[in-house]
Amino acid sequence: MDLHAYTKSIGDLLSVNKKYIVPRFQREYSWKSEEVAELWKDISASIKVTNGACVNLEYFIGSLVLVGQDSSPEMKIVDGQQRLTTITILLSALTQSFKDISENNLADGLYYQYIEGKDNSNQPYFKLINETPKPFFQRSIQHHTKEELETSTEEETKLLDAYKFFYHVLSFDSTKSHFKNFDSINGTDPEKHKAVLNSLRDQILSYLKVIYITVTDEEDAYTIFETLNARGMSLSAVDLIKNLIFKDLKTQHPDDYAKTEWKKIGENLGSGESAINMDTFFRHFWLSKYGFTSEGRIYKTFKDFKEDNVISSASFLEELVNNSEYYNSIVNPNIDDWRLPEEKAIYNSLLALNLFKVVQPRPLLLALKRARLDAKINIHDHVNMIRTLENFHFSFTAISSSRASGIDGKYSKAARDLEEATDRTQARAVLASLTADLRSKVPAKSIFEQKFIKLWFTNGKTKDKKLIQYIFRTIEKNKRTTSELTTDMITLEHILPQSDTTGSSYVGLIGNLLPLDGRINNVADTAVFQQKLQHFQSSELRMVEEFINENQATNNWTESKINARSKSLSDFSYDHVWNI
User: Fold this and answer.
1) Is residue 6 packed enough to be buried (19+ CB in 10 Å), middle (13-18) or exposed (0-12)?
2) What are phi and psi of 497, to 5 degrees?
3) Residues 17, 83 contacting (CB under 8 angstroms)
4) Inter-residue contact 214 to 70 (CB < 8 Å)
5) Which helix H or strand E contains 432, and what residues bound it?
6) What is the Cα 264 distance to its own chain's centre?
7) pLDDT in tens, 228-285
8) Are 415 and 285 in contact (CB under 8 A)?
9) Ranges of each domain in the chain
């Protein structure tokens, strides 16, 4: 391996007519706010104010490993792309900051020297080339005239967050408040601000140093990428597996298949309301198909499977693409993903699991989706198992807040057993065994009741509001024999009004709440109890009808009645609605 290493400044790196390309096997931009803020702190802390002027100190920011000839117009980044991308974002934010204070010459000098260059045909190009977040990164962050595009992936969100962070800390108000000894810099406030921006530019370009390492062969780049991880670099199993897949699938004409398919994974994971972390998805996928493996051994296990022809890079990549789509439909439930009438129950259960903030079943949920596609289970098996998960986690997690020790392992084992099942009989046996395990872990009724009767909602304390609305919707559905009436648009009526200060210690309890249409709620809110019952008669809900019938002879709604109703709701929920 022909390797060269020497020290360079960021200015030395970016001032030459050279493209620095993020290779196809590299991970997406992944720096979080903490890492961006840490780099900023290191850069800004290296500037001191002496005798009214900013003085720069050298600062070493690590190594940059590139593949290609040093004399060539293009170099591929093997290691250091996160830092170089972040520095490019900082330079772009600094360019915009110069424009904001009408220092257009400074802005142009920085932009056209270090962010954008021109080739021998006088055609412009960006010095840092990254195709994965294209065109968002190029048009919204790198370009001199920025466009406000919507982010569509987790990577794009992190890129934009980094830009917004730097743009904020470079503002006058921020530099004046946080830049050490700002007031002692010579000049007016605008002149001080300009001096700080100039000093930051110089700090980045002339005083940030890297160890510049080059290798000439791309095959060596894959080896270095893997070796760096073994030497303690923070690369995850999925980064290394991506590296190996791209090494195997080298064909880039007429299309770079590996790169196109990997981009689909990112698009699938970023297409929902909640963007999904790639490492989280990969971990749950691996658990669902290959069982528990420690993070440190996943890559070795993958390589062993490849050598034993258990998997191939092409088939594994295809599985990742398909499962990323399934995973998004689990994490971000959309009714369009569950179109069959029977599948609406799956959709509703997934919404419930999200409401409970439960992630442990996701490997099993992936396995269930695959098992149904492979005809190992039918839709009724699918619905029943997910309803079991919903019912279990309502009692175990949402109400009782029980410790989940061992649950992850049970889900992983059930997912793997389901994957290995060869027919419907074996698959159903796996689900029956898991159901029995979950049934044995359901909290005792006394524990459930103790927590249930403390559920609370007032305008000043809304933490349990969505959970109580879910409880009422589900109880109402249980009391009906058909699904003709939906109960999605309900508000929570306080039977004893919140304005009654005598009931401040019990007014928010679930026993004092009724699900109502908002119009009924508004009319009945401040009425006395018997008048409230008359207004409640406009409701079509069974829960409200039963409440009216049970309290026709009641004149006063008291604390004891509220507590009794809380217990009654708890008993009905435990015995009839969320039982397994």
Assistant:
1) exposed
2) -65, 150
3) no
4) yes
5) helix 424-441
6) 17
7) 555 444 557 888 788 789 888 887 768 889 888 998 998 899 888 888 888 899 999 9
8) no
9) 3-222, 237-281+289-325, 333-443, 451-577
